[in-house]
Specification:
The chain is an alpha+beta fold. The protein has 5 domains: about 10-60; about 135-245, Jelly Rolls (Sandwich), CATH 2.60.120; about 255-360, no CATH class; about 415-500, GMP Synthetase, Chain A, domain 3; about 500-615, no CATH class. Helices cover about 15% and strands about 30% of the residues. It is built from 9 helices and 36 strands. The strands form 9 sheets. Strands 1, 3, 4, 8, 11, 12, 15, 26 and 27 form a 9-stranded antiparallel sheet that branches. Strands 6, 7, 9, 10, 13 and 14 form a 6-stranded antiparallel sheet that branches. β21 (about 320) and β22 (about 325-330) form a beta hairpin. α1 packs across α3 (about 40-60), α4 runs parallel beside α5 (about 400-410) and α6 packs across α7 (about 475-485). The protein is globular and about 115 Å long.
């Protein structure tokens, strides 16, 4: 991390001492230098005022820190937008309804909160409502229904009308699975939206399904069709009467759009910036750019966005977009050693009109909305009755804080063109994606073995009970990291990407609350503090969220007593025990651990479910 900049390191006592040493030179008749002397009192008073002034001078503003980081080519990473799949439902069975790309869907606005806007990234067209179905004889023992369709089924919402006899012999909770044929000859599970057959108990009725985003045709029973099947046991006698499309799904990203925004009139001066109305700005698409219309002209000329002006000549129509601050900047003019000036990038002539064709703004963790939140169309779409997000939005992250950019700058000042040391591998993994929370280079089994890099993904709202699925990087993230590290590894170096090694712990606590304390509130606070402290993403600090549990750091039971006693309203701790727990199965050890739980050098502590009880005094 960059050290704090100190412009003047003089402090109060140093100022007083220096002033007293100059008394003999400037006023030799002044011989009384005790603290009781009025002159010494005045010196201390002015030294105090000067110390306050120096303190303010040393408080370098954030904008200066950002300028210093830009000098070494480091800028804070912009926010990342959340992504979600939206489900659109038709008003009535129809043909030709199209939902264009860029359709905006919002969450209901609440007091004091801006609207959360998502935009679809792909157009969606509803196919013919009626689907031509070709039933086939089920082949698997648990297949109840197997039917093929000529039309692709990817992302469609399908209503199936089924006829059959009631199946009273199905006891207990019905177990019915609907699947569609997927790429590679496998099956992908469909999402059940509504079931009027009560899990095929009633025999007849309608079933509404949302089919997977990726389906594919497969050769079954001599027919190359898009297949849908139902699996259940025992097998009731049912048949498909009718199938129709009632909706479709479309991917969407968090962010609103602004089109044809005027930036004003060019001053014709190098290095000038022009602010946009909204920020932060999302990554520009191919059709999103700056346009310039010269004085007296009618044609808008597009300019090109670049990362820097280092390779720009005075004739290149280039500009730089600061996405975090929402500013458009033109190239500077730099004085050369021989006394002339060099222009980096062309500058629009004075009086030229500036406008941005389109840009999208938003992103951040606020876009990680819960399922069922996005329910309002910003503008009506003909033929669409309703919209919702059946699953939560994920992937949104706030802009990188200044402190994070400072730490990254200290690392990037070192040579990172090749991954040699463990620190190199960790830095490249963290730099590859904001979805990586931590990367730990593990200890190899032997000198000739592969480099073992353990990856911990970012998690939304990590101060809670986290599931093993959330703490395991998905296939797409691992592939992204593999591609990035492949560019930097040394010849002969093999890299093995693995999920982070986690040691699960479960804490059982019984405490006594203080008189008049809200026992339920105290219980929740203790539980929250334990989930925050015993956390691989933000744990390890007794003072609140930190940088994650340090790799290999043992857990001392005494630390947990400090965490519990640090909660307001806790008077005493009657019982505190720590158990190891299998995060995959949830199975807890029969006996509590010793007072000191030692973990492996590349392991992290993660919370299982904690059990907290607070009783009255």
């Amino acid at each position: 991390m960059l050290a704090d900049i100190v412009l003047d390191d003089l402090r109060f006592q140093e100022l007083v001492s220096e002033a007293r040493t100059r008394i003999a030179h400037h006023s030799p008749e002044w011989t009384e230098h005790n603290v009781s002397d009025p002159g010494i009192t005045l010196i201390e008073l002015f030294a105090w005022f000067t110390d306050i002034l120096l303190y303010r001078i040393n408080r370098v503003p954030e904008r200066v820190h950002l300028a210093l980081l830009e000098l070494v080519g480091v800028t804070p990473a912009p926010p990342r937008p959340a992504r979600v799949t939206l489900r659109f439902v038709q008003q009535s069975p129809s043909t030709g309804v199209t939902i264009p790309a860029g359709t905006e869907v919002t969450a209901p606005r609440t007091a004091g909160q801006d609207a959360i806007v998502f935009r679809t990234t792909e157009p969606v067209t509803f196919p013919d409502s009626e689907l031509s179905a070709r039933p086939a004889e089920p082949s698997a023992p648990d297949e109840t229904l197997l039917v093929g369709f000529e039309q692709p089924l990817s992302g469609r919402v399908v209503r199936l009308e089924i006829d059959g006899s009631p199946a009273d012999e199905i006891a207990g909770e019905p177990s019915v699975t609907w699947e569609a044929s997927g790429p590679g000859g496998g099956w992908r599970e469909a999402t059940l939206i509504a079931d009027e057959t009560d899990g095929l108990r009633l025999g007849s009725g309608a079933v509404t399904l949302e089919l997977p985003a990726e389906t594919a045709a497969a050769p079954i029973s001599g027919q190359d069709l898009h297949w849908l099947r139902c699996r259940t046991a025992p097998r009731p006698d049912i048949r498909l009467v009718r199938a129709c499309v009632v909706g479709a799904s479309a991917p969407a990203v968090h962010g609103a759009a602004v089109t044809q925004e005027s930036l004003g009139i060019s001053e014709g001066v190098a290095g000038v910036t022009y602010p946009l109305r909204h920020r932060p700005v999302l990554a520009l698409a191919a059709d999103e750019t700056l346009e310039v219309r010269e004085p007296g002209g009618d044609e808008w000329v597009p300019w090109q966005a670049v990362a820097s002006f280092a390779q720009s000549s005075s004739r290149d129509r280039h500009f730089v977009l600061d996405r975090v601050r929402g500013e458009v900047r033109f190239g500077p003019a730099i004085r050369q050693p021989e006394g002339g000036w060099r222009q980096f990038g062309e500058v629009p002539p004075a009086g030229a009109a500036l406008r941005f064709t389109r840009y999208r703004y938003g992103g951040g963790s606020g876009g990680n909305v819960a399922a069922g939140t996005l329910t309002k169309l910003a503008a009506p779409v003909a033929g669409v009755a309703s919209v919702t997000n059946p699953r939560p939005a994920t992937g949104g992250a706030d802009a990188e804080p200044l402190e994070g950019a400072q730490r990254r700058a200290a690392l990037e000042l070192r040579t990172r063109t090749r991954a040699v040391t463990a620190e190199d591998f960790e830095h490249l993994a963290l730099d590859a994606s904001q979805r990586v929370a931590r990367a730990l280079c593990g200890v190899a089994d032997d000198d000739s073995g592969p480099v073992r890099l353990h990856v911990l993904p970012s998690v939304d709202a990590p101060d809670r009970l986290l599931s093993l699925v959330e703490l395991t990087p998905d296939e797409a993230l691992m592939q992204l990291l593999a591609d990035r590290l492949e560019q930097h590894r040394l010849i002969g170096t093999n890299i093995l990407l693995l999920p982070a090694r986690l040691r699960g712990v479960s804490v059982a606590v019984e405490g006594r609350g203080a008189p008049l304390a809200d026992l339920e509130r105290v219980r929740r606070d203790v539980e929250h503090a334990l989930y925050t402290f015993l956390n691989p993403v933000i744990g390890g600090s007794p003072d609140g969220p930190g940088r994650g549990w340090p790799a290999g750091r043992a857990l001392n039971q005494g630390e947990l007593f400090g965490i519990v006693y640090g909660i307001g309203g806790v008077r005493a701790v009657n019982l505190l025990r720590v158990y190891e727990i299998d995060l995959r199965t949830g199975e807890q050890a029969a006996q509590p651990t010793e007072s000191h739980l030692v973990i492996g050098p590349d392991e992290l502590i993660a919370s299982g479910r904690h059990f907290v009880r607070v009783v009255s005094t």
